[in-house]
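Continuing the series of single-chain predictions for the mutant panel. This is the parent chain; the variants come on the following pages.
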Amino acid sequence: MKNGKQIAQTVLTTVLVLFVSQSAMGQGSGAGTPPDPIVESKLVIARKLSNEAEALFKKGHWAASVAKAQESLIIFEDVDQPPGTHLYWRLARSHVALGNFEAADMAFKQMVRLLPRGELASDNADVTLPAYIEFLADMGREEDAKHVYYSLVREETFVGVKSLNSMGDEQFPVLIIFDQDAQGDYWPYTPGRIKLATRLAVEHLKGNVKVIDGVRRDFSQELMDAAKIQFPGWYLPFAYEMIKNLDEIDEAKVASVRSLTRSDREREWIDKALRWYAADGADQLDPNQFQDMVHADRLRQQIPLLEQKRLELMANPTSVSCGKAYGKGF
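Parent structure:
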């Protein structure tokens, strides 16, 4: 028969076992452990160094910015925490400015690895990925540039990105591709074309007018002027100007724009856009009919090439834009 001391020890042991079991269950169900004060203090330093690297980057002090960024990355790696994508973006851009192209490529790869797996959408993809595409194009890496470009434009939506192709931002879908595909708008590849197509994929065309240093700039019109050079004979810049100046539309101008189209689908977009923007009364197009027709996100989903490239990035972590470049990676 147990004495009082033995009973007390048995009860204490049972309580401890239950406590440990419940703690383990809590951790398994998502209960977090308290932050490590040492890790937190290191992260404060890493972020401070990252901010200093950003300030130096903005001043064009490339070498000093690289040094600060690398100091920051050492600490992030030490505590096994990923930095922000913009830290790698600035590091890559600084290396480009210094002519360190191999180092720039590695930084760009690490940048893309931090974007959500399975999709390239993020709140700053409109800045980070175009910089990488431009770099690849300038390096003469056509296939790599196209791969990242296709993966970028395939995304259904961009969180926080004012995409030209999103509903309400663009009158006509931009479906530019650089390989033959019946559902896309094929153009032979040039570095200038893919850089402009990337800008068209992530920027507004409507109302993008700003005053910089006292000078009024219409960025939408600048894009269209550049498109006339890079994509000669493309209907969209002229269709854009026609819709922009509704009061000046006449049959000759409409016929001229229609003559530049390359498919029945493009001609239908123009005809229905005119009804949507300019017509009155019973002939006016139902808003839902027009918006459903020109929903570029859905149209991009119908281009097999874009989905193929997106899946390749998901399946192959050593591909051009998701490869483990150096260090442990994230």
